[in-house]
Design brief:
This protein is α+β, with helices and mostly antiparallel strands. Helix content is 44%, strand content 15%. The chain has twelve helices and eight strands. Strands 3-4-5 form a three-stranded antiparallel sheet. A three-stranded antiparallel sheet has the order 6-7-8. β7 and β8 form a beta hairpin. α1 packs parallel to α2, α3 crosses α4 and α11 packs antiparallel against α12. The longest helix is centred in the C-terminal third of the chain and has 22 residues. The chain is globular.
Length: 314
């Protein structure tokens, strides 16, 4: 993904150097880190996994308000003021309040998670006890960054977002938009959950826009993480300028995010520089990889297998 994104960036640097690159490609923090560090473009990442629904913080509405999944949770989510932050697919609930009364609903969130009987709630409780925070993303996303859990589900085979046929349909639709045969507002491909088009319009028109979450360089909004690291946090766009809103992560969550962010940095630099040693360091530093020797062997096999896309000298 980093290799392909940097190739797009090189075209943009030649053809539209003042444009911003809006990324919805995973692994988002690693892609956006590489774009920011190894191209001249501004890049931002868009994902709403922490919301738990297409239309808002639906997971929080289920836990805090007892809303049923579906339309009821969508409607209830509009009554919540929620703050999540951390890293993409590794965000944490920091505040949940009732917009009408201002009541703190975090205790209800904790009660709901404590009552849950399925494996997802068991994982959330375990991490809450271990790290002092309630994970906002689906447990199967969060688990990808932590030591292996026996009851987590690890996705190892595609497709992840749609079938190959659906991917081909999206590609044809995008080509129609680019050729002027289809208006972008009619393109289902561009009406994404993450709403990057809303950001693009507000940026172009210098309008104000509040973003419940955005992936961008840490501008001090999360003081416990290094400046410049790609974080996921609430932000506000005002007159063409973006600023992250200040948030405070629980101490153990902050330390964990820093370690995972270190891995993102090593991966981004290693791919951009075609440096196999940096990628090996990333494996060594990754808390999700317990058994390093087979992981390093698998890394070498994967790099060799994809040498046509991105060669890594041994």
């Amino acid at each position: 993904s980093i290799t392909l994104a940097l190739a797009v960036a090189r075209d943009m640097e030649a053809l539209c150097p003042r444009a911003d690159l809006l990324d919805v490609t995973n692994p988002m923090p690693r892609v956006v880190t590489a774009l920011r560090r190894f191209s001249s473009l501004r890049a931002f990442g868009f994902c709403n996994a922490a919301q738990g629904g297409r239309s808002g913080y639906e997971r929080a509405a289920q836990w805090a308000l007892g809303a049923a999944p579906g339309p009821e949770a969508v409607a209830a989510a509009a009554n919540l003021a929620v703050v999540t932050a951390g890293l993409n697919h590794f965000a944490w609930f920091l505040s949940v309040r009732d917009r009408r009364s201002g009541a703190d609903l975090m205790p209800r969130m904790a009660e709901s998670v404590a009552r849950g009987q399925d494996r997802a709630h068991a994982l959330l409780r375990r991490w809450q006890a271990r790290y002092g925070g309630l994970a906002a993303c689906a447990p199967d996303h969060t688990a990808e960054f932590l030591p292996q859990e026996p009851d987590a589900r690890y996705h190892t085979h595609p497709p992840y977002h749609g079938t190959p046929a659906e991917r081909r349909d999206r590609w044809r639709e995008l080509r129609q938009v680019a050729a002027g045969r289809l208006h972008w507002r009619r393109a289902e491909t561009l009406v994404s959950w993450e709403h990057p088009v809303d950001f693009a319009v507000a940026l172009a028109r210098r309008q104000s826009l509040d973003l419940p979450m955005l992936n961008f360089p840490n501008d001090g909004c999360i003081p416990s993480l290094p400046a410049g690291r790609i974080v996921e946090a609430p932000a506000r766009l005002e007159g063409g300028k973006l600023a992250g809103l200040p948030v405070v992560l629980p101490p153990r969550v902050a330390e964990l995010c820093r370690v995972v962010s270190d891995v993102h940095e090593l991966v981004a630099e290693g791919v951009a520089r075609h440096d196999r040693r940096l990628l090996r360091r990333a494996v060594e530093a990754d808390p999700a990889v317990a058994d390093k020797a087979p992981a390093l062997a698998a890394l070498d096999d994967l790099l060799d297998a994809h040498a046509d896309l991105c060669p890594f000298p041994r």
